[in-house]
Write a structure and sequence with these properties.
Elements: H1 9-24, H2 29-45, H3 63-79, H4 82-94, H5 112-122, H6 129-140, H7 163-166, H8 168-178, H9 181-198, E1 199-200, E2 205-206, E3 216-217, E4 220-221, H10 225-239, H11 247-266, H12 288-303, H13 309-324, H14 353-371
Antiparallel strand pairs: 1-2, 3-4
Helix pairs in contact: 2-3, 2-14, 3-4, 3-5, 3-14, 5-8, 8-9, 8-10, 10-11, 10-12, 12-13, 12-14
Length: 372
Amino acid sequence: MKIIRPLSVCSILLLLSGFGMLKAQEIKPMEVKEIMEKVANWQIQHFQDVNSKGLKNHHPLAWPNSALYIGLLKWAKIADENKYFEWLKDVGERNKWKLHKRMYHADDHAVAQLYLELYRKYGLNKMIKPTVKQFDFILFHPAMTSLKWRTPYHQDRWNWCDALFMSPPVWAKLYNITSEQKYLDFLMNEYTATVNFLFDDKESLFYRDESYMSKRDNGTKIFWSRGNGWVFAGLVHIMNELDSKSKEYKYFLNIFQKMAHRLLELQTPKGHWAMSLLGQEFYPTPETSGSSFYVYGLTWGVNNEILDRQTFEPAIKKGWTNLVGHVTEEGMLGYVQPIGAAPGNAWADKTEVYGTGAFLCAGAEVYELYSK
C-alpha cells in the first residue's frame, strides 16, 4: 500500500508563497486605477512637503516637479476628472507659462512637456509662447561647448544621461505641433552626439556622464538605474511624437530595443532593478523610480507592438507587482532614491515627486495593457 506522507511545514509555506506570487501577478485594470488614484492624491496633498534632502519643497518649475507633472498628466487622462487638469493648469498660470531659470540647461526645459500637452488640450497660444521663444533663441545661438564633464558650460548641452528625458521630448513635441523641421534637426544633431558619447555598445546602457566611464564599483561598470530610466522613458516620449516610418523614429527605436532586451536580462528575481544595474549583489535594496521607468517603457513597447508580449509580459507583471508592494496604505511610494547621480541608498519611508511621476507613467501603460 502506498503511504501518503503529510506535507512538512516548509513545503506548505512554499506552496502558499508560490500561490501568493501567482495571485499577486493577476493584474486587474480597476486595481491599477485605484492604486494610481491613491498615489496621485497623496502626492498632491503632500506637494508642499520638504524634499528628500530635507530642504524646502522644490521650485514648481524645477525638474523633480516636472517629472511629477508628466505622470499626473497621464493619470488625468485615465481618471477623466477635470480637477487634475485644473491643478496642472494652475501650475502654468501661476508661473506665466515660463520655463525655469537657465536658458540652455535641459533640467529647466522639462516643464515645457506639461505646457505643450496642456496646449494640445486647451489650444491657448499663451501656454507655449515662452517655450517657442526660448527654443528659437537656442536654435539661433546653439551652445558650442564640449560634452566632456566639468569643462566650461558643459551642461549647456546634453552631456549627462538624465538630460535625455528632460529636453529632447520638448523638441520632438514642438516639431510635431508646429511641423517645423528645424526642431527635429536640432533634436537629432544633439541627441546623436550624446549617444555617441555616453552609450556603451557592449552593455546597451548609458553612463550617467563622462566621469563614470573609468570608475568601477566592486569591479563592475557603473550604470545608474534611474539615469538609464530617464533615458528609457525619454525615448518613449520622443517616439510618441514621430512618424513610425521615418528614419528618425527608427534611430530611436534601435536604441530602445537594445536597452529593452538588456533590461530584461538585468531585472532582479524580486522584480525591481538594482540601483547599479550590473551590481545586484551589492545593491539589494529595491529602488522604485528607475524601476517605474523600466516598467513604463517595457509596457509601452508591448502596447505599441514594438516588444513581444510573450517575452516581456512576465517582467512587466513582476515589476508592477513589486512597485505596488512599496506603496503605503496612505498612498506614498517608498524606496525612491533621493536626488543624486549614482547608485546609493533608498528607504521604505522616503519618497520623491519624480518617483511618483514615474510610477504614474508606469501605471498608465499597465492599465492600458490589461484594459485591452
